[in-house]
Automatic annotation (TrEMBL):
Top EC category: transferase
Domain PTS EIIB type-4: 1-162
PROSITE patterns cross-referenced by the UniProt entry: PTS_EIIB_TYPE_4
Claim: Transferase is one of the keywords in the record: yes
Organism classification: Bacteria, Bacillati, Bacillota, Clostridia, Lachnospirales
Keywords tagged on the record: Cytoplasm, Kinase, Phosphotransferase system, Sugar transport, Transferase, Transport
A single GO cellular-component term on record: cytoplasm
GO molecular function per UniProt: kinase activity; protein-N(PI)-phosphohistidine-sugar phosphotransferase activity
Coiled-coil boundaries: none
Listed name of the protein: PTS mannose/fructose/sorbose transporter subunit IIB
Amino acid sequence: MQEIVNVRIDDRLIHGQVAAVWSQYTKATRIMVVDDQVVHDVVNKEALKMACPQQCKLSILTAEKAAANLCAGKYDGEKVFIVAKNPKTIRSILDHGFVMDSVNVGNMGGKQNTRMLKKAVSVSEEDIENFLYLAGHGVKVTARMVPTEEAADFIKLIEEAK
């Protein structure tokens, strides 16, 4: 049986925090990057391969393929760290049948038509809708940049920002 050690939203995907800090903290043996666009981006895929820690295997998959592989138990005996750029992708994994307990919101950089809810976390109305959808389906949504930081209830941050 595979073990999901973290589901993280981070628009940088694999970078210093994920590669060095989170992968070691979770003792991940596989990092699964889930992104329907990156799958088709040769340059981005090569960069992710270089950024992936040596002790981890790497999967770069669409949300549909990730859900299918996870539901089938394809990563038996592995500690899987799932990372996606946004809550829409996590919602898609859920909608394709893979149920998760929790999601950790890391970095979501500010873009047009977003507002900051927490340092380094800016959301659009669509992001909020997707986070509330996840929470409505029993997924605990927290915000935590690094493992030493206390996890904040992300849904509470959304409600306080209204």
